[in-house]
Amino acid sequence: MSLDSKIPEGHISEKWTNHKDHLNLVAPNNRPKIDVIVVGTGLAGASAAASLGEMGYNVKAFCFQDSPRRAHSIAAQGGINAAKNYQNDGDSIYRLFYDTIKGGDYRAREANVHRLAEVSGNIIDQCVAQGVPFARDYGGLLDNRSFGGTQVQRTFYAAGQTGQQLLLGAYSALSRQIGLGRVEMFNRHEMLDLVKVDGKARGIIARNLITGEIERHSAHAVIIASGGYGNVYFLSTNAMGSNVTAAWKIHKQGAYFANPCYVQIHPTCIPVHGTNQSKLTLMSESLRNSGRIWVPKKKEDAEAIRAGKLKPTQIAEEDRDYYLERRYPAFGNLVPRDVASRAAKERCDAGYGIEANDTNEGVYLDFASEIKSKGRQTAYAQGNHHPTDEEVIKLGKQWVEEKYGNLFQMYEKITDENPYETPMKIYPAVHYTMGGVWVDYNLQSTIPGCFVAGEANFSDHGANRLGASALMQGLADGYFVLPYTVSNYLADEIRTGKIATNTPEFDEAEKRVKDSINFFLNNNGTKSVDHFHKALGNIMWNKVGMGRNEKGLSEAVEEIDALRKEFYKEVYVPGSADELNPELEKALRVADFMELGQLMAMDGLQRKESCGGHFREEYQDAEGETLRDDENFKFVGAWEYHGSDINKEVLHKEELNYEFIKIAARNYK
């Protein structure tokens, strides 16, 4: 199977328009004859299902939550990018395109990224029309703020709950289609396999998570929008239910899996507090607009803070190391996430960490300077040109509360520390996965009729995602790309008729699912699923995490292989198949994580360079920055499944051609 990315000819600014103009169409009277399955109802899935339903297709939408409103997209706090240049600071479609390519360390497809930048403005218009309550400035116009990796303000936001508000907008559009009968919603259902007929995606096998019933669902096309795979690390900022199963099942049916080693470590998470934690909490990147990141300059001060003998507010300004401002003066605290994360790790590894845990991992995110600055501005605007210090602090806190109040409240509830009075403690944690199912320009995988959207595909971010671009990609795919490209595919399906489910292909797929379920329920193991998931996460974080090297990656491949064998021998799953059984759900998902984790280590091992979130310690420059090898590794690494022995996966390469952007070493200094 060849990797044909189907990138259109022509100038970068005309590719998408010309491509749309020549795609095949399905007439309105023919669309009700065609069925489409959408797996996942986050931003990408909900927007795709709503859009296709609005067009008149019969849509079946599946989510394992009790409602699409529970999708992990709600956790995105900071904002969504769009090139509208409302701030008149030099932004443009090209600038967003360039920043995204550069931010991804020149490992993303030019054509996909430019399309994303082109439709970004339409997303904002769509969401405003849906009633999404974006923040506005004093004149009533939409407000913007800065995010990492850019020198313009292009991030639209709704306080610290942008993802939730955008999802409610998509959910309202989806609910309208459900009410009209064009979308049939299957809550508390999980896709457990893909069904192919004559090589084409023709349906899925799903499990009703309440009753345990195994169901067959057919369609003329299947869209996977099931999110990323960060929970392979066990501890991440992802929701506990987030998993790779839907994407991994189509991989095992022939969809290539691309760049699995590209994982984003987010720099502003609440540090790990103990071995019994089940997930981590993200503090929005938007806080880096106003907070300054620092550690003590003196190791003895860091040691005193860890011992509880010193408070951060007792450290004098001249004794603080604002290390991002020191190392990257042009971008300061708003460098891209991978850069900020590695810088924090470097300081903590050197002994300057401030969190009193076994690893001393933690740095400060301090708002004192912003509180004073905004307090003075507010006082002056009110006519008070000589405010007292108390007045300045009071007004500054009010300004910060208006901008970030729910985030500060969340932090205090979790840590029992008041971030208005004492700096937040943060440390990098797994957040997002840039790798995913390989798709062409039409977002179709290597399985005809199987499309992949949002974080589940690999397409738009390269080796690192800029903040506020995940929401942009998910909604771009669902609202403005898939309605065109899926219709192009379905134009050949109007005479196919209803896809039957009483066929050998559905029989075989259902048998695979039932055999897997029966295996886990009848296994006479002695250890819990979480025992193995934590063990896997420990290997992944230590050897396929922020810092990687050949020795660690090689060990990870072998250790995960051994752990996987022990998992199948020793895992114990209580309960039965015909009931609500969360442990069974977890077992099926962790089985997929085991195989994926091994492939991630293999992918990291073959990529002998550092780029974005993939940092090989052997490949760094004198200042500790990523050292790419553009001559040998300027490609998308797409893996083809060849049986249960993961070592038999075959690597295919899609060369990346940069015609409209000059490749250079990333420089944020």
Automatic annotation (TrEMBL):
Active site as annotated: 337 (proton acceptor)
EC number annotated for this UniProt entry: 1.3.5.1
Transcription as UniProt keyword: no
Protein name, per record: succinate dehydrogenase
Span of domain FAD-dependent oxidoreductase 2 FAD-binding: 35-471
GO cellular component: plasma membrane
Catalytic activity: a quinone + succinate = fumarate + a quinol
Domain Fumarate reductase/succinate dehydrogenase flavoprotein-like C-terminal: 533-668
GO molecular function, one term: flavin adenine dinucleotide binding
Coiled coil segments of this chain: none
Membrane topology field: Peripheral membrane protein
Organism: Flavobacterium microcysteis
Domain of life: Bacteria
